[in-house]
């Protein structure tokens, strides 16, 4: 049914009410963002034009966005983008929304590269496993101008969105996006390629925990991006086992981890001879969030 005209103030109040009914975490902020999206204005405009009358068709459009969001449908899927490392990434259904937590790993890798003369002076090869939107791949490429990045994802949707983001950021010349399972597309390149750094934010949620997550994640984000097997560690095991074949001597392997997976990761890395100097870093919330290990070949 076609709604009547309403003022911005009335729409704002309606938005907060609807999102509160849906137990959405930040009803005020989400309303502000959805309203500015629906009206195609910036956020400040909402506050400075409260008495402006909005006509029925736009009101309808805003209310249908609100009702979608009320079910837990991710705000970023509606708005179509998400900021990460100061860059703007297109996102959409089928692709994990980049998380601020993941900046911990990216910032750490950038630090490692900048602190090592060997990495700093030459062109370096980086492999990212699990591209998603391209958050890690493209921010490393953006901030490390001497990096050549290969990035693999098994998901067609992620592959497509990452392609759009690569183009948008103008990074095509230094980024190669590959579709497939873990190291397989690298093997298929049929080159003797080795990497200075292998990095991954793999799926790491234990299968049975997925349904307990907030509905934005459990209902709408791709299971393929979340499910790390029975104990959440399946992908870490596979990547740790596969990496030695592709890491250069004195290379680095880095992962994002779940807040309670630090000791598991340390153990898994210690099981493989050649990984050393294993260190864990916490995120801004004080939770263990990333692990980095050095790789040194003994022969
Ligand atoms: C947690 S998401 C990380 C996405 C992105 N790197 C980020 O940090 O926002 C994990 C990604 O791994 C991909 N993935 C899952 N299984 C895979 C596999 N066997 N080989 C390659 N990628 C895989 C998923 O499609 C998903 O995009």
Describe the protein in words.
It is a single chain. The protein is α/β, with parallel strands linked by helices and 299 residues long. The chain has two domains: 6-71; 84-295, Vaccinia Virus protein VP39 (Rossmann fold). The chain has 13 helices and eleven strands. The protein has a seven-stranded mixed β-sheet, with helices on both faces. A hairpin with a 2-residue loop joins strand 3 (81-84) and strand 4. Helix 1 (8-21) runs parallel beside helix 4, helix 2 (27-39) runs antiparallel to helix 4 (56-70) and helix 6 packs parallel to helix 8. It is elongated. The N and C termini lie far apart (74 Å). S-adenosylmethionine (SAM) binds next to helix 8 and strand 6.
How would you concisely characterize the structure shown here?
With 299 residues, this protein is of the alpha/beta class.
Top keywords for this entry?
299 residues, alpha/beta, Rossmann fold, 2 domains, two-stranded antiparallel sheet, binds S-adenosylmethionine
Count of separate structural domains: 2
**Principal-axis shape:** elongated
Strand content: 15-25%
- Counting DSSP H or I runs of 4 or more residues, the number of helices is 13
CATH homologous superfamily assignment of the largest domain: Vaccinia Virus protein VP39
pLDDT averaged residue by residue: 96
Strand count, sense and barrel status of the largest sheet are: 7 strands, mixed
In the CATH scheme, what's the topology name of the largest domain?
A: Rossmann fold
Listing every helix as H and every strand as E from the N terminus to the C terminus, the arrangement reads EHHHEHHEEHHEHEHEHEHHEHEE
- Estimated helix fraction: 40-55%
Q: Given this structure, which CATH class of the largest domain is correct?
A: Alpha Beta
- CATH structural architecture of the largest domain: 3-Layer(aba) Sandwich
List the ligand species: S-adenosylmethionine
* Helix/strand structural class: alpha/beta
Radius of gyration from CA coordinates: 22 Å
Unreliable stretches (pLDDT < 50, length at least 5) are none
Strands of the widest sheet, in order across it, are 7-6-5-8-9-11-10
The total of beta strands comes to 11
Measure the end-to-end span: 74 Å
